[in-house]
């Protein structure tokens, strides 16, 4: 997700202000993500009623169930609809009222130190692919911005009282998506670091090699390009295309070739570049533990 958080709010998503929040206690870092499910009326999707509940505007006459709950003062930071739309109600640096009486690893009042995410759903339906993808995206974004250490379900911090996100929430799949997203972000950062290092070494070229050079059938185009040219004109664009297409990143090992290729080089300091390439190899290889 190329989204950004400014003043506790995700830019460019729908913002609906809830009155149901207050300040977090001081010295309580945001360390926990709590996943919930909600649908209003229960098991019905797409209506305006969750937004109305979280903003104190639910009409008790519209549905018998609403009459039971319309006076509740509840909110969450985020609500992810079935189609993947994300709505934010409370800035992350404020305390939303989503967890109620709760305890995580001995610490009570999870609202103090958590971010609450409501998935539009119920305990008896699968969640949608779009929801998992968006949940993984915001999880990665939140982890970049806050010291989140754990992710849990409402039922885990309020057992006996709450059952959401329920047995249909696929924790394994969610974790896998988060790991993939985290890995992709790390690879993007690493590619940028390699680009900056090539620029720093004056090896980043303003214009590409001759078209014939791209026709090489050798690994690393080693008969037609310099190692750094291959990085700039073949490898980095190819990786970028895979990432843009959301294709799987293959495992690769560039470091042995570059270490060999740079052996004779005396006039430039390639150690940092080699280290960056080695780290990139490791990032691509580590995806095996994602499964
Ligand atoms: Zn809940």
From TrEMBL:
Do the record's keywords include Ion transport? no
Superkingdom of origin: Bacteria
InterPro entries on file: Amidase/PGRP_sf, Amidase_domain, NAMLAA_amidase_2, YqcC-like_dom, YqcC-like_sf
Look up the EC number in the record and give it: 3.5.1.28
Q: Which UniProt keywords apply?
A: Cell wall biogenesis/degradation, Cytoplasm, Hydrolase, Metal-binding, Zinc
Record's subcellular location: Cytoplasm
One biological process term in Gene Ontology: peptidoglycan catabolic process
- Gene Ontology molecular function, alphabetical: metal ion binding; N-acetylmuramoyl-L-alanine amidase activity
Recorded hits in CDD domains, A to Z, give:
PGRP (cd06583)
Q: Per its Swiss-Prot or TrEMBL entry, what cofactor is needed? A: Zn(2+)
GO CC terms for this protein? cytoplasm
Catalyzes what? Hydrolyzes the link between N-acetylmuramoyl residues and L-amino acid residues in certain cell-wall glycopeptides
Where do the N-acetylmuramoyl-L-alanine amidase domain residues begin and end?
A: 18-166
Record NCBIfam families: PRK11789.1
Per the record, the similarity remark reads: Belongs to the N-acetylmuramoyl-L-alanine amidase 2 family.
Spell out the protein name for this chain.
1,6-anhydro-N-acetylmuramyl-L-alanine amidase AmpD
Organism per entry: Gilliamella apicola
């Amino acid at each position: 997700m190329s989204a950004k958080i400014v003043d506790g709010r995700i830019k460019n998503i729908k913002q609906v202000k809830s009155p149901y929040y207050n300040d977090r206690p001081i010295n309580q870092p945001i360390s926990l993500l709590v996943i919930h499910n909600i649908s209003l009326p229960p098991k019905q999707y797409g209506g305006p009623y969750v937004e109305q509940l979280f903003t104190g505007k639910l009409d008790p006459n519209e549905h018998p169930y609403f009459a039971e709950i319309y006076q509740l003062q509840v909110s969450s930071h985020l609500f992810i609809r079935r189609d993947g739309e994300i709505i934010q109600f409370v800035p992350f640096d404020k305390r939303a009222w989503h967890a109620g009486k709760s305890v995580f690893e001995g610490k009570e009042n999870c609202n103090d130190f958590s971010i609450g995410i409501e998935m539009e759903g119920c305990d008896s339906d699968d969640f949608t692919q779009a929801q998992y993808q968006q949940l993984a995206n915001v999880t990665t974004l939140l982890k970049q911005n806050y010291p989140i250490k754990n992710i849990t379900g409402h039922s885990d911090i309020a057992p006996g009282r709450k059952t959401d996100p329920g047995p249909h929430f696929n924790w394994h799949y969610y974790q896998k998506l988060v790991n993939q997203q985290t890995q992709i972000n790390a690879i993007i950062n690493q590619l940028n670091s390699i680009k900056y290092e090539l620029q720093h070494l004056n090896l980043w070229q303003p214009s590409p090699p001759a078209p014939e050079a791209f026709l090489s059938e050798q690994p690393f185009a080693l008969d037609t390009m310099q190692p750094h040219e291959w990085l700039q004109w073949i490898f980095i664009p190819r990786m970028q295309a895979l990432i843009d297409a959301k294709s799987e990143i293959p495992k690769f090992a560039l470091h042995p070739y570059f270490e060999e290729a740079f052996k004779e080089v005396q006039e430039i300091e390639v150690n940092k570049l080699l280290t960056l390439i080695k780290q990139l190899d490791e990032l691509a290889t580590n995806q095996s533990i994602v499964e």
